[in-house]
Amino acid sequence: MNWGIIFFLWFGVIGAVCLFSGYSMKTKRQIKIGWFIGRDVQAEKCRDIPGFIDAVYPKIMTLGTIATVGAVLMILLEVFEVTELVQLVLMIVILIYYGWFNHHVKKATKQYLD
Question: What is the pLDDT of residues 66-91, one digit of tens each?
Answer without folding.
Answer: 888 888 887 777 777 777 777 778 77
